[in-house]
Write a structure and sequence with these properties.
single chain, alpha+beta, five-stranded mixed sheet, 5 strands, 36% strand
């Protein structure tokens, strides 16, 4: 697809992903004029699949308090012919998850104290 000039082309981009085996987004927002397309997905595997499929180079993560619940919003974005396309995943996280965000490499183990 070379441009996203029409709503049909924007929806065609999503249809191509679903036809390729990706799970359909649970929410799709297309701004008037086709300058912004937002996909919301249900889990991290879907988020990774859509951002890989679309080739999204820009990633951002935001952690925030939503009325006593801690949420993490992961967003991947790409500009395609003047249209900003974003894939968003919102997850509820616990304080244990937040502790893991502070560790540079969670796969390594901490040295034992003597």
């Amino acid at each position: 697809m070379t441009e996203l000039a029409t709503r049909a082309q924007a929806f065609g981009l999503i249809a191509e992903g679903v036809a390729a085996g990706l799970t359909a987004p649970w929410r799709l927002y297309l701004a008037r004029g086709c300058r912004y397309l937002s996909l919301s997905v249900g889990d991290r595997a879907e988020w990774n699949a859509w951002r890989t499929h679309l080739g999204c180079p820009e990633l951002s993560v935001r952690v925030y308090d939503a009325g006593g619940e801690i949420r993490r919003s992961s967003v991947a974005e790409i500009m395609l012919d003047g249209c900003r396309i974003s894939v968003e995943l919102v997850e509820e996280v616990s304080t244990d998850d937040l502790d893991r965000l502070l560790v540079a490499d969670p796969t390594t183990t901490e040295p034992e104290e003597k």
